[in-house]
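Input for the complex:
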Amino acid sequence: MHATQSRPESGEDDLRLQLDNLSVEFGATRALDGVSLSVAAGEIVGLLGHNGAGKSTLFNVLSGVYAASSGEFIVDGAPAPGKLTPQEASKLGITVIHQEPALAPNLSILDNMFLGQGLRRSTGQRERARCALTEVGSDLDLDLMVDALSLGERQLVDLARGFLTGDMKMLLLDEPTAALGRAETESLHALIRQLAKRGVTVIYVSHRLPDILDVCERILVLRSGQLVVDGATDSFTGRTLAQALAPGMADEEFVPARVQVGAGCLDSNGISVAAGEVVGLFGMAAGEQFSFLAGLFGLDGHGRFSWNGEDVDIASPEAAVRWGIHLVPADRENDGLVSGASALDTVFLPWLRQLPGRGWWVGPAVGKGTYAEARKQLNILGPGADAPIDEFSGGNRQKHLLSRWMFPRQPRVLLLAQPTQGVDVGAKQDIATAVRGLATQGVAVLVASAESDEIAQLCDRSYVMYGGSRSEVPRGPEFSGDLVSTLLQLSDAVRPMEGVSR
Amino acid sequence: MKLPSVNLKSFLAKNGIFFALVLLIVFFTILNPRFMSTSNALNVVLQVAELGIVALPLALLMISGSVDLSVGSIASAAAVNSALVMSATGSTVLGIAVGLAFGIAAGALNGFLVAYLGLNPIVVTLGFLSVWGGYAMMVTGGRTVTRRELPETFQGFGTATVGPFPVRMLLLILVVAAVWYVLNRHRVGRETYAIGGSERAARLMGVNVRRVRFGLFAATGLASALAGIMLGAKVQSVSPAVGLNLEMNALTVALLGGVAFAGGVGRVGGVLAGLLFFGVMRNGLVFLQASPFLQTIIVGLTLVVAVALDESIQKIVKQSWATRGKAVLDASIEAGGDPGDPSTPLAGEPQRLGAGKH
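Predicted:
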């Protein structure tokens, strides 16, 4: 560990930030659920958690984007008002750095630094910008256009903005190294340590566990809006951290698939899945596992794979559906559902052409039997078959999308992209049961996801994909954790040596 | 059900054109009691027959998320083509066949450029508005093909009747029925709504988006040609400007009728009401002896108002979905059952894909 042990002169007990039972509610969902923690001045804290665990919500409360529903939020011993505005947050010395620096590429560094700060152009501004850049250890020419800068340099400019308004007290970093090379990451980490030495409190969010282990002194883990782990970095290893993030699912309910290789087996680019089997494809958020599914479906050009050793060429989604390969896309609202379509049409539309006469007479009752059956299978709740799909809740909309591709006609291969994202626990269970049930009837199922828990709930085994390389992970007692640590190994092995931009 | 105000608002938003039509008729009747008569009603329908024949297929095309601004010029060019063939050969049937074939071809060309080459429909068809308009002027030298040059059977076409019904009205009814059938009872209608609602989602459902869109353009071209030929028969001479402003008027009718310019939304009944509203307004202005220039101004303003209403109507309808959906779900949680089950009385508003939305 390279974590700095030294503290600023202001003293060990100087608490910079205290959260007391902080909750944030959006309608019925609790994005943050009674989080209490305290962070000292000059401390570097790593914040971990899955998508939707509440990391971004916490950042947004601290930076004044959201208001807390209940609980206290104390900065430097003074309770912050119920709702900060972003301007007040920046006056308190709170700076947020996002993965993509929010800079206008067509303006100079100088213009960008004063953009949106509410500061008047004045003669002294060049000096102040110069000083701010020096604070972050950069001697970039103020008149350079931002689009001539590397991503690392852009982050420095973004960081320097935090010094314009006065003293930086708290620095919130959201996935700062996601697109940085090793050298740039190391210089960013060096800068973070320097700032911490001068008393800046740093909260660091990253999916890259090595980065967190490298620079942070303490690690917090959020799960479903609750703080579940709070401990010194020294007490963790990569593996224990992965387990803390994704605790093993209740495996005793899981019935392994009976693989029916004779009934069909798909092979493509080293990925294979047999009839009766549910196989996962795990990778980064928006990673290549999703484009792999789209490729099989013939979405961007021809999809090619072998089925029982015979080559299959899928020219278009239409051809894919005809062949019997069905895709549930990850972006439910844009790629899956048509706003305004009735619930019945949402499920039955692709199958109208299979009616007698290719759908020359579609009466109002066509497909209602199938729809009612699908509704029972997936336990769908909401208005009737004729109501627009928009009237259903998110989980029930997802169930409609799944039943479209599962029940009116049984597929040969079912491709699912994040089939349980954004739905509640009960709906997740309903979906898992239905997918496992379909597999036992001899369907080959591929599940692409960026969430290891989702794969662990659904799949018999999984592949992990990163940067063109893949490795297979069998189902074990710590399936979810194994997936995360395998992805970690892969991503570290193929990490670029130098910056990716420029 | 709960939230009656939301439902009422969305009901009014969806059906506003019907109320507007009634109000307009009442308004003109008060100003001139002779307005309300059977002969004038028939008059209104006959005045907008050709417009309706273009507006309904155009509405179908707009529901799929496209638009054809070249319909007026296709109508002119088709009418001119058929008139020239008729005057050269003396055959009415051959002339009409050539005109209709031209319409399909011109529509198919639009469809090929938009659906298969992915060009912007507004720009492409705006270009052909100019191309076919110029073509009609060029082949006639800008002069009207007069009555003496046209066969006698064609001259009778404009006033022909089957029993008590004028042929022009029957053709309108035929087109209305065909569009209603495609939209409400044929697979392609569901696919059309889906393409207009989300082209990408439709493609991912295995819908052959290109073929559907190509077909809709070709059908719109055919209907435009038919309208152009009918307009010529109506006045018994074919001017190369016979379809002038047809695209503008048809677009106004479709938007008035609740077809969303963004696609995905529209009903045959609404477009019919929009067509009658347009016809009543024109007819009423004639009754009031308004200047024809004023009429043009009013038509233009109507188009702008229709677009403005389109936006707010879609917003109101979307809001009502969200609130009603939540009400139904809350009620179901209270009752502990599935309200979508036909045995429970809570089932939401009956609705086929697109059919009930506006």
